[in-house]
Amino acid sequence: MANQMLSKVDGNVLTLERVFNAPRELVFQAFSDAEHLKQWWGPRGWSIPVCTVDFRPGGIWHYCMKCEDKAQGDFYGMESWGKAIYKAIATNEQIDYTDYFSDSEGNVSTDMPSTDIILQFVEFEGKTKLVNQATYASPEALQQVIDMGMEQGITETWDRLEEHLQNAR
């Protein structure tokens, strides 16, 4: 199961699982610290020029992904802003937050679906199993983000996370 992402859709819920060859504390830190997130968040060819994290319940993570890869054609130079609001945090175990598309000012986009996310960090044979449960308002809202290429994007993002974790050890 290492290096392979498992994906399951059940109605309006998408569950993703992957095992990372790193201690749970490090994987958790990679999701909770802006300096870590800047190194790996987003698909290949995209950077994070803006990333602020107020990591506490009620706190906000606001970021910009920018396409730096000319080979990605029309996406080159494109910016995609996101905003997450943390709901609950159990250190090294779980992060619950709502994820939104936003603008550079942090205003939430009403054109795109929000996602309620529960990230679980599970010790697994000396490694860390990450379980990402994403709940959408409807199966149609989930399909909208799938149609945008979200699964490829998260696969590349988690590949970059694996590489970052190896370099951070």
From TrEMBL:
Origin superkingdom? Bacteria
Q: In this protein, which residues make up the domain named Activator of Hsp90 ATPase homologue 1/2-like C-terminal?
A: 21-165
The record, for InterPro entries, names: ASHA1/2-like_C, START-like_dom_sf
Q: Which family does it belong to?
A: Belongs to the AHA1 family.
Q: What is this protein called?
A: SRPBCC domain-containing protein
- Please give the organism: Paenibacillus lycopersici
